[in-house]
Amino acid sequence: MKDESIEVIRSGNSREKAFITIAVGKNYLNDWNNICRRNWSLYCKKYNIDIILIKQPISSNDEKNHRTIHWDKLLIKRIPVCNEYEFVAWIDADIIINYKNAPDLFNSFDHSKIGAVSLMHDFPFDLKCAKKGLHI
Predict the structure, then answer these.
(1) Longest C-alpha distance within the chain, in Å?
(2) Using CB atoms within 10 A of its CB, is residue 56 exposed (0-12), middle (13-18) or buried (19+)?
(3) Model pTM greater than 0.90?
(4) What is the pLDDT of residues 18-35, one digit of tens each?
(5) 117 or 68: whose pLDDT is higher?
(6) Cys bridge to 118: 8, 74, 93, 123, which one at CB 3.0-4.6 A?
(7) 95 in a domain, yes or no?
(8) Cβ distance 102 to 95 under 8 Å?
(9) How confident is the model at residue 136 (pLDDT cuts 50, 70, 90)?
(10) What gap in Å lies between CA 64 and CA 74, rounded to an integer?
């Protein structure tokens, strides 16, 4: 990846926490800049969280033939700046953050585990049941 394909928006001097997102293409980048940038920036400034905005696919040309851009979130460790942070959270680029009321995301989970948020009504579900195709 080229350096101009990554924008780091610093919210302080700490390299402890960062949100990472991807907005590839003029339309997606314009939407993020016009709709999300302000509320993300206000939220992140409030909690000293940096934003890492990826503007180009992380996947190599060979990998692009096998998966859509949505899978690139699994490749964030390939981006050197992400490795500078103790905690990194992937946030989809179409998320609007209620910066006035939302708590610090990084204080709302057990740091020894991987966290996830889903719109599924029964998430999280029991992994043993999921392997059998059953939800509890």
Answers:
(1) 47
(2) middle
(3) no
(4) 999 999 999 999 999 999
(5) 68
(6) 123
(7) yes
(8) no
(9) very low
(10) 13
Give the C-alpha separation, 20 to 10, whole Å.
12
Q: Which residues contact 104 (CB under 8 A, 6 or more apart)?
A: 47, 49
Give a yes or no: residue 136 inside a domain.
no
Tell me which residue of 95, 101, 104 sits closest to 32, measured CA to CA. 95
Compute CA distances 57 → 21, 66, 95, whole Å. Answer: 11, 13, 19
The verdict on residue 13 lying in a domain is yes
Please state the domain count of the chain.
Answer: 1
User: Which residue, 21, 93, 79, is CA-closest to 50?
Assistant: 21
Range of the domain at 38: 3-131
Which of 3, 31, 17 lies closest to 92, judged by CA?
A: 31
Flag whether 17 is in a domain.
Answer: yes
